[in-house]
Automatic annotation (TrEMBL):
Transmembrane segment boundaries: 6-30
KW Transmembrane helix (keyword) present: yes
Species whose genome carries this gene: Candidatus Roizmanbacteria bacterium RIFCSPLOWO2_02_FULL_43_10
Name of the protein described by the UniProt record: General secretion pathway GspH domain-containing protein
Alphabetic keyword roster: Membrane, Transmembrane, Transmembrane helix
Length: 161
């Protein structure tokens, strides 16, 4: 018999199996990366609302005649969504954002008040945003002067002091 050139059936099966395993591993890694990037994007949107309230309080803006001098950021969880609102004290809600489904607040409702002329904050000083489909969460921490620090981590490491 002459020498056969080409691949055997077993060699082809091994190559297909290895390729399939690599593709599946890549898909899982990309999925986790994509979910983390979505959490980062939602965290940035939330931070923009806190920055808005702080900036307007420091500026001393009066959005209505009955304004009481400070802005609040209030987060609620009615049902399966989270609503984040900037509330000028004594006035109707100024702006609101509804997170997409799949997020929840670890500690229920959240309220932080930015004191007049940037003299600090009172109320809750830590907000944890959980991404329900993964083990990831975003922790937003406020110091007494109103400075914000955000951390994205696994759920096991996500807790408020």
């Amino acid at each position: 018999m002459g020498k056969s050139s080409g691949f055997t059936y077993l060699e082809i099966l091994i190559v297909i199996m290895v390729t399939t395993l690599l593709a599946l591993a890549g898909k899982v890694a990309y999925s986790n990366f994509n979910v983390r990037k979505q959490l980062e994007a939602e965290t940035k949107k939330a931070i923009s609302y806190f920055d808005l309230a702080r900036t307007q309080t420091i500026a001393g803006e009066k959005p209505c005649d009955t304004f009481e001098g400070f802005f609040s950021v209030f987060a609620t969880q009615p049902g399966d969504t989270i609503e984040l609102e900037v509330l000028p004290a004594g006035c109707p809600s100024q702006t609101a954002y509804t997170f997409p489904e799949g997020y929840s607040l670890a500690s229920g409702n959240f309220l932080i008040n930015y004191e007049p002329f940037g003299t600090g904050v009172n109320g809750s000083t830590c907000l944890i945003l959980l991404q329900n489909s993964t083990d990831a969460c975003a922790k937003l921490s406020f110091d007494q002067s109103g400075n914000l620090k955000d951390t994205i981590t696994s759920g096991a490491n996500c807790s408020c002091p």
